Amino acid sequence: MSNRDRSKAEELEFESKLQSLCDTIRNLASSRQGDSLALLSLLRMLEGLHQEIRDSLFQDSLPDNRQALYSLLKDIEASGGWPYIHRMKLRSLLSNFQDLSEDELRAIASLNPTSIVDETIG
Predict the structure, then answer these.
(1) Lowest CB count within 10 Å: 21, 73, 88, 98, which one?
(2) What angle do CA 72, 15, 52 make, to 5 degrees?
(3) Cα 4 from Cα 34, distance rounded (Å)
(4) pLDDT (tens digit per residue) in 49-99
(5) Quick check: 94 and 108 in contact, CB under 8 A?
(6) How far is Cα 73 from Cα 106, in angstroms, rounded to an integer?
């Protein structure tokens, strides 16, 4: 088997494992539908994993020459851009609470999440 064939086989195996992992995560999330705390835990884990991979393995794998950098940037542009984990805005979260007044929504939106944690712990 040539190096090119081996590389293609490894890429296909990686894609297959990645798809299997995605399916597993989707099934796990679906099994906890309606359980906001469990789903929040899953989102936090995924965000942490994203940061861990980005800050270590990905950083270490960045190209060290112009041609490789150009190839990476070209792939990023062609494949949909830079991966980003979007965080839900508090106002979107609170849209489920129809009975809150605008003043209550503004008061909640102005809260500092750190102070909420400090007050809960303290």
Answers:
(1) 98
(2) 65
(3) 47
(4) 999 999 999 989 988 888 888 888 898 889 888 887 777 666 666 666 666
(5) yes
(6) 41
Reading the block at residue 29, the tokens are 């999330």
DSSP 81: S
Question: In sequence order, which ranges of 1-122 are alpha helices (DSSP H)?
Answer: 3-31, 36-52, 59-61, 66-78, 90-94, 102-109, 113-121
Q: How far apart are CA 54 and CA 83, in angstroms?
A: 10
- The pTM assigned to this predicted structure is 0.67
Residues listed for the chain: 122
Closest CA to 90 of 75, 79, 100: 100
Taking the domains of the chain in order of start, what are their residue ranges?
88-122
Task: Give the whole-angstrom CA distance, residue 1 versus residue 108.
Answer: 62
Render pLDDT for 5-31 as a digit per residue (tens, 0 to 9).
Answer: 888 999 999 999 999 999 999 999 999
CA-based nearest residue to 43, from 55, 56, 32:
32
- For residues 60-76, b (16+ Cβ closer than 10 Å) or e, as one string? eeeeeeeeeeeeeeeee
